[in-house]
Amino acid sequence: LSRAIRVVAERRLVELDRLVREHFADRSDPEPVGVDDLLARIRAGNVIVLDTRPAAEYAAGHIAGALSIPVDALKESLGNLPKGKAYVAYCRGPYCVYADRAVEVLRESGRKAERLIDGFPEWKAAGLPVDQSTA
Fold first, then answer.
1. Domain of 86: which CATH number?
2. Structural domain of residue 58, as residue ranges?
């Protein structure tokens, strides 16, 4: 439902195009990671998935196997993240900037990082693997 509402809004709101250009023009990823691609990487063990939302949101539900590192705590957590791994960051959806900021921090530290095309709400709505736990 949330995806359907977003699609209608994207089609109807001329203003949305302007806002997206203003606020997301500096996105460094030409193509974010798609859901099928992320699932394949998770199954192959080729990626570390980072949930960049606040810890309370992670505890309420997150992509199965994701690590909780809120974007504001990421710089302080870099020492705990191996450099030779690939990372995919996600947050609340395609218009949430947490994942974009996380990708920027990870890349600046010499890590390979991308963002997920959607966020946790879309992942959960699609019936994909989720967990609930403490952060």
1. 3.40.250.10
2. 29-131
Tokens of 29: 């990823």
Please, are residues 49 and 33 in contact by the beta-carbon 8 Å criterion? no
| Alpha carbon distance 123, 31 (integer Å) | 18
Catalytic residue among 42, 63, 91, 103: 91
pTM of the predicted protein model:
0.80
pLDDT digits (tens, 9 = 90+) for 92-128: 998 889 999 999 999 999 999 999 999 999 999 999 9
5 in a structural domain: no
Q: How many domains does the chain have?
A: 1
96 is an active site residue:
no
Contacts of 35 (CB under 8 A, 6+ apart): 116, 117, 118, 122, 123, 126, 128
User: Residue 131 corresponds to which tokens in the numbers above?
Assistant: 């967990």
Residue 12 lies in a domain: no
Residue 135: both structure tokens together: 């952060």
